[in-house]
Design brief:
By secondary structure, this protein is mainly alpha-helical. The protein has 10 helices and 2 strands, in the order αααββααααααα. A hairpin with a 3-residue loop joins strand 1 and strand 2.
């Protein structure tokens, strides 16, 4: 299956919306515990699509700034900036913690991929495709791909139509895709197009199996993807990959 190149319009709109909401949180205009406007309200206020709003909220959640509560809305986290700073400090260089997160993800996301293949709606399938295409766009722009990677996995979780899968990923937040923030492991490989394309090959296998409605293949593809990440981090933990950066996306 070939994926058409994505227009840069949607990512630019999402960037702008993320910046605007982040500024309101930083300035105190949106205080801890405050509820963000509804998806419909934000589409009308900012003149953007629901897809743009969803991507912006996903990125804010990945940064630990907001939390989505099923049936209630999206809320600003308590002391979000302090939370993010603590998370960054805690995650830096701690490969063992990344492995713990991956273990949880394997327990959750392998079955989520199978359920997504069985239950996804046309809209949910479009969200998976959009996140996949945004990952490609970020590679072309030379940008970190963590946000698009998180959006891809979150879209799969949403396609299970079981809100608890999404809630678990939102709780993990940036720990889900830590490669952009584990700074002591960062090196040139982190921005290597070949390296990112390897991740996309794994993502493509998962996505195509879900689109084909093949639950067994989706489960197997997700297992291969997360197992490969686990092996890369284990190699770093045991000193077997000097100077190389693993991926957990």
């Amino acid at each position: 299956m070939e994926i058409a190149p994505t227009s840069l319009r949607r990512p630019k709109l999402a960037d702008k919306l993320v910046d605007e909401i982040r500024a309101k949180i930083s300035s105190g205009a949106l205080k801890p515990g405050a509820r963000l406007p509804t998806e419909q309200q934000m589409t009308e206020e900012h003149g953007v699509s629901r897809t743009v709003v969803r991507e912006a909220v996903t990125r804010l959640a990945a940064d630990g700034l907001v939390t989505a509560r099923q049936g209630a809305g999206v809320f600003v986290n308590d002391r979000p900036e302090a939370l993010l700073e603590t998370l960054l400090a805690d995650m830096t260089g701690k490969v063992s913690m990344v492995l713990n997160v991956l273990e949880v993800r394997m327990a959750i996301e392998i079955e989520a991929a199978a359920l997504a293949a069985q239950r996804r709606t046309a809209s949910q399938e479009a969200d998976i495709l959009a996140a996949f295409s945004e990952f490609d766009s970020q590679i072309m722009r030379g940008e970190p791909t963590g946000a698009a990677d998180f959006a891809f996995h979150r879209a799969i979780a949403a396609a299970t139509s079981n809100p608890f899968y999404v809630e678990i990923l939102d709780v993990l937040g940036r720990r889900t895709i830590p490669r952009d923030i584990v700074t002591t492991l960062s090196a040139g490989l982190l921005h290597s197009s070949d390296y990112q394309q390897r991740l996309q090959t794994e993502h493509r296998d998962i996505m195509n199996a879900i689109i084909d409605g093949d639950a067994t293949s989706a489960r197997d593809a997700m297992r291969r993807h997360l197992s490969a990440s686990q092996r890369r981090y284990q190699s770093v933990l045991h000193g077997g990959t000097a100077g190389r950066v693993p991926a957990a996306g």
